[in-house]
Request: fold
Amino acid sequence: MSKLFEADASTDEGLKIIMAGFAKAAVTVVVPAILFVIVAQWLQLFQVGWVQSRTDNLFYVGQNLAFAGLVLTGHIFWVSISRATPNAEKWQEGHRPSTGTTLDMAQRIALNTLEQTVIFALAQLALASVLPPESIDATRALLVVWIAGRLMYVVGYRKHPFYRSYGFNATTLPSLFALLYAAFRIVFG
Reply:
C-alpha cells in the first residue's frame, strides 16, 4: 500500500497506480453490497405489511431518510464538538482550519456526508415513485449499505485519505443504482 500512498498523480505511472487502487476499492465494496441487497430482498428482511400503495412507498422512504438524517446530524455534532474541544484549533470566520487537524477532518467528512445525503434522499424518492409496493423494502437494504458506507468513509479517512474511497464507493452505490433504475423505469415503463 505504501506504493499507492507515495504515487504522484501528475505522472502517468503514478496515475496508473492510483487508478488501480481506486478500482480495487470499488470492486471490494461493490460486490458485497450488491450481494447484501439481493439476499435482503430474497429473505424479505425489510418487508412490512402496511405498504400497500405508492403513497405508502413515500412514507416508507421517509422512515429511511430519518436514519440518513441521523447520520448527517452525527457528523454535524462531530464538527461542533471538534470546535469546542479546549485544545482544538478554533474556526475563524472566512478561514479554514489547518489541513490535517481534527476540525478540518470533521468538516470535510460532514460536507461530504451532506452531499451524499442529498443525493441519497433524491435517489430514495425517485425509487419510491417507480417501485411497486411489494418491492419497496429494497430501499431499506440500500439504506443499510449507505450507512455502512458512511461508517467506512469515516474510519478510512481517519486512517489515510485514500481509504475513504472504500466508504465513498459504498455510499455512492445505493444512490447510483436507485437513480439509474428509476430513470430506466421512467423512460421504459
Q: What stands out?
A: The mean pLDDT is 87.
